[in-house]
Amino acid sequence: MKLKRMMFLLSFLTILVGLFTLCTESVHAANSTVFRDGDKLKLTLDDGNGVNRVFKFDLPFTIKPDTPIRLYSNYIEIPSGDFTIDYANSTITIADSRPAPYPGSENHIELPITVKGAVQSVDESKVTPLAEEPKVIEPQVTQPVVEPKVDQAVDESPEIPLTIPSGENFPGTFTINSSGTSFSVRLKIKNIQPTYTSYVMVKNADAQLIKRIQFDPETTFTYPLSNLNLSTGGYYFYIKMIDQSGNSAASVPQFVPINNNKAQKVEVFIDGKLQQYEQPATSISGSMLVPFRAVFEALGAKVKWDGATKTVTATKGNTTIKLTVGSRDAYINGKLVRLNAAPRLINGKVMVPIRFVSEALGAKVKWNIAAQSVVIFLAPPQVLTTSESEQLMEENEDASESQSNPTILKKISTTFSKSTDIVFVIDVTSSMTGTLDYVRQKVKGFVDSVPAGSQFAVVAFRDINLKADKDLEFLEFTTDKNKLKGNLNMLRPSAGGDLKESGLEAIQLAISKFPKNSNSKTIIFITDAPVHDKNTDLGKARFSVDEINEQLQKNGVIFNAIVPANGPANKQMKKLVDTNKGALHDIKDAKLNLAK
User: Fold this and answer.
1) In sequence order, what are the beta bridge partners of 268?
2) Which of 7, 228, 252, 342 has the fewest CB atoms within 10 Å around its CB?
3) Which among 415, 425, 477 is positioned nearest to 446, based on CA atoms?
4) Which of 554, 523, 522, 548 is nearest to 533 (CA)?
5) Sequence-distant (≥ 6) Cβ neighbours of residue 403 within 8 angstroms
6) Max Cα-Cα span within the chain
7) CB 435 within 8 A of CB 479
8) Phi and psi, residue 594, nearest 5°
9) What are φ and ψ of residue 56, in 5° steps?
10) pTM score > 0.70 for this model?
């Protein structure tokens, strides 16, 4: 009996050691085997365990420190801003802001063989060709379909990640002309990629985005301020460049005062805010005088007024200022200072020189001659340029929309004669930022225009790997326009990396989500890029345009498309639109605040 027990224990230990050895070899293999896939190298990392954020990549050769590395978890690319690379120690660390790869997830990195024209120091003997996954290929009687060269060119150039710096080192300039009637933008960037999108962003005094103007980065861009229809107030302008994967860079926001009444009234801005005075600012002897209490309190000072001596005393921190009506003698902490203009009593209001009091309290003062405005900042403005801070404010649609030239969504809404189930199928890569703003702002008027009883859903898509279906997002049907707007506001432009998108998968998902009892079905498809077609993009699409066309016809779906006016995307969608009783619209007419 003891002998049997000992033999059992020996067998168990042998199996345990074998498993440990196998696991050790597997991990080692995962960290040391490099696969070649065309002009890229792929290295498999350790699987996720739900906790680990630091992954070692043991390459059998050296790579350049500036080599762009792309990280994937279960074939979904992790944005470059969500991880850091330690080239010296060959590790990648995923930021705490995102969950650690969950248990069992497959993780790998990809890197190019060439970097900025130079070849990596790759030992080809240590690189294994990537074995392709088996594909089911249907028999072809005729020659396979080959896209025209223009279609192929769209997909052949890989995206180069945006690497330019933000802030003071941003390689571009924003300037207002001397008359204050227009602004100019010039970028100093080499190799501007077609997947980069360039904007001038405009925020109001509350740092809310109110305008976004897209421009051509290849030339100096000049644009009239009057075209922005800005009301009198303070605004922050900055340049922003975004690549299709959501990486971005921005210049330092520049404060611009707008004074639509400059011929009649001087305006005063303190920390970006337009000041409202009961007695308007008045120029005397070259000095601008303003009501004493309003300006001191706006600058954070406590004020006392002595009516007997007509003396104003203002205190802030360790600084005390005294001024007397009618006297050019002023005192800062007891030290005499001679003023260019004495404080005065105008229409019952005590007026004091704004430059003197502002600078005495540590503020910076500038006279903006073009806007006839005094601009005062106690500290440099802190205005965010992050994507999260840039949700465009809604405009008054009725006031901004011409009835003689209704928006695309209004045009589509007029085609419905009965209640309809409608799915918005929207490309949400970063280049679609302006179009998403358009849909968010115009969808209210669209919903109000369609027949009662209609319901609305949303399918969002990006350029996805076929194993990453969760990047196809379905937001359920609703008859509540506020819920629809809320669903649209949830969409954040991001991802990309390919110049074609997974639109056919998204259309097929939309078709499958229509209720079985739908009397009328409509899809509004919105993208600025062509879609992957399985006939020409093997391994990147499950469907062809022809197959989706058949599904639309079989299910009686009306198909509308908002796409570029020409090019491969137009060609692909025109076939679906023409066959399925819809209309084709130019995407350039579905963007807000774009220069034309």
Assistant:
1) 374
2) 7
3) 415
4) 548
5) none
6) 116
7) no
8) -100, 140
9) -90, 135
10) no
